Amino acid sequence: MVTAIDLRQPESVTSDVTEVSSYLQYLPAIYRDNIFLGQFLYIIENIIKPIEGVIDNIACYFDPYLTPEEFLPWLAGWVGLTQDESWPLEQRREMIRRAAELYRWRSTRRGLSEHLRIYAGVAPIIEDNVAPNTLAVTLVVDDPTVVDEATVRAIIEAHRPAHASYRLEIGRAM
User: Fold this and answer.
1) C-alpha angle 16/40/45, rounded to 5°?
2) Average pLDDT over residues 152-164
3) Dihedral over alpha carbons 25, 28, 34, 39 (to 10 degrees)
4) What is the mean pLDDT of the chain?
């Protein structure tokens, strides 16, 4: 805390703060002993340090398994996903990691199967042409109440071929 400042002679500043910036080492020798400048740069250094920490670790922000949870929606936006916040954290991270691959397989059996596997944790049973242009999708899970049928239907709608309809069955594993 600065208690007195003489604007004509900055070297005469008295202060209770003894900490000075490490940035002084980068200045010409004539400025390194200036306490006022050291304390002023200390303020700036403490503002910049968290930003430097982010920049030093920027690669972690692009990895869905390393990025902080609050950055997941931002990262999902980069790959064109709208995240369902009701999904568990690990499923959301896996979905972001696999987004580009899932887009490549969109409207295919493989894409549908992978997306449902990520969501439900089990591979679905998909049968083609159980009736003309109709898919039968069966999910056999330990606890059917954990799987949201509306979410499963939304996933199927996003991945089924445009001309095909579907039947969905969610059952309990024996």
Assistant:
1) 110
2) 88
3) -40
4) 86
pTM: 0.64
Report the pLDDT value the prediction gives residue 48, as an integer from 0 to 100.
Answer: 93
Looking at the 3D structure of the chain, how many domains does it have?
Answer: 3
Say yes or no: 79 and 96 in one domain.
Answer: yes
Task: Supply the range of the domain harboring residue 19.
Answer: 2-56
Integer Rg of the chain from CA: 29
Phi then psi dihedrals of residue 168, to 5 deg = -120, 135
Lowest mean pLDDT among 14-23, 32-41, 72-81: 14-23
Same domain, 38 and 76: no
87 shares its domain with 119? no
Tell me, yes or no, whether 95 and 133 share the same domain: no
Q: What region does 80 belong to: left with phi over 0, alpha with psi -120 to 50, or beta?
A: left
Question: Do residue 119 and residue 167 come from a single domain?
Answer: yes
- Residue 16: pLDDT over 60: no
Kindly give, in sequence order, each residue whose CB lies less than 8 Å from that of residue 112, ignoring residues fewer than 6 positions away.
124, 126, 137, 155, 156, 159, 160
Q: How far apart are CA 92 and CA 23, in angstroms?
A: 41
